[in-house]
TrEMBL record:
Pfam families documented for this protein: Ni_hydr_CYTB
Cofactor(s), by name: heme b
TM ranges: 38-56, 68-87, 107-128, 154-176, 188-207, 227-249, 288-307
Ranges for domain Cytochrome b561 bacterial/Ni-hydrogenase: 147-319
Keyword RNA-binding assigned: no
Name of protein: Cytochrome b
Main subcellular location of this protein, as a coarse class: membrane
Cell compartments where the protein resides: Cell membrane
Family assignment from sequence similarity: Belongs to the cytochrome b561 family.
Topology class, membrane: Multi-pass membrane protein
Signal sequence region: 1-22
Species assigned in the record: Congregibacter brevis
Length: 319
């Protein structure tokens, strides 16, 4: 085993040992009366699904409303961080770092809050421009030769909105101090949305077989086509591996997986080695790979729209 591998193993081993008490506390914590955290998770899921539907509605005014809802979602993340996380002084006394890599989490939250703020403002600008359009969107359920159909679009944007919400939510949940009253509630919401994202991705893959995806935009160069194909495959892999690795990690750790009001007990016994391996993937390796792949995907899409002036690129997935 190389030096780097031994260092990573030691770091994650330290994290597992220090979080043993946290897992025990999680197992004995009680759910809120009426499972209010499940209603919060359901509200987030329904809001994401409705936003995705409105974004691709036939009527132009409904599409404008969808853009406003998407902007509100982004601004809500920024407001949550700026008003709650910072306003309550939460970052001044977070859960102690389990590994040196955890010291980057406050910075990551700052970056994500700023991006969410900018995205929200940009979406409001998009909604204003959309408000001047009067054309109806003639769109069928199945994919077409040069654009995605309604099913693929709604699946894409619902999954994207939920997955993007999971990122700051997961970071925040991991630094909530032990003994905090709402700590379990964040885990319930986070894990519930993770299960739904995994289900949506699996269904999307099934739908792609039933209704083949359109070919890549003709305006892309051969190099851009290869990069786009690699980015798509990587994103699918991330959206599957991150929820699965989280489930396997918590199962090896002895903690349940939550799905709204239901709890799925671990399918196997406690394993320190299993927790270390899967914890390293879920907490460190996969998230940082995701930042790179997702960032490249978003920047690539913006480049085609704003720099290359390929106006048809965005319209393949949203109108």
């Amino acid at each position: 085993m190389g030096v780097l591998q031994r260092v990573l193993l030691a770091l994650v081993s330290l994290a597992i040992c220090q979080s043993a008490a946290a897992v025990e506390a999680l197992q004995i914590s009680e759910r809120q009366p009426g499972n209010s955290e499940s209603w919060v998770a359901l509200s987030i899921v329904l809001a994401s699904g409705l936003t995705a539907w409105f974004l691709n509605h036939n009527a132009p005014r409904v599409r404008v409303f969808g853009s406003i809802l998407a902007a509100f979602g982004c601004l809500s993340i920024a407001a949550w961080f700026l008003l709650y996380v910072l306003g309550t002084g939460f970052l001044e006394n977070p859960k102690p770092n389990q590994t040196p890599l955890d010291s980057a989490k406050p910075v990551l939250l700052w970056i994500q809050a700023i991006i969410s703020l900018l995205a929200g403002v940009a979406l409001l600008s998009v909604a204003f421009k959309q408000s001047k359009a009067t054309d109806n969107l003639a769109l069928g359920a199945a994919n077409e030769a040069d654009r995605y159909g309604r099913v693929s679009r709604v699946l894409h944007w619902t999954t994207a909105l939920l997955f993007l919400a999971l990122i700051p939510m997961g970071i925040f949940a991991s630094i909530i101090p032990e003994g905090t009253a709402y700590r379990l509630e964040y885990y319930v919401v986070h894990k519930t949305i993770g299960v739904i994202v995994l289900a949506l991705v699996v269904f999307r893959l099934f739908w792609n077989r039933k209704s083949p995806r359109p070919a890549l935009d003709a305006s892309l160069s051969a190099r851009e086509r290869k990069l786009a194909h690699a980015a798509h495959i990587s994103l699918y892999a991330m959206m599957i591996l991150i929820p699965v690795s989280g489930f396997v990690m918590t199962s090896f750790h002895g903690a349940p997986t939550f799905f709204f009001a239901w709890e799925l007990e671990p399918l196997w016994g406690f394993s320190k080695t299993g927790t270390i391996v899967w914890g390293m993937m879920h907490k460190y390796l996969l998230p940082y790979l995701l930042y790179i792949v997702l960032g490249a995907h978003i920047l690539g899409a913006l480049k085609h729209q704003l720099i290359d002036k390929h106006k048809s690129a965005f319209k393949r997935m949203v109108s």
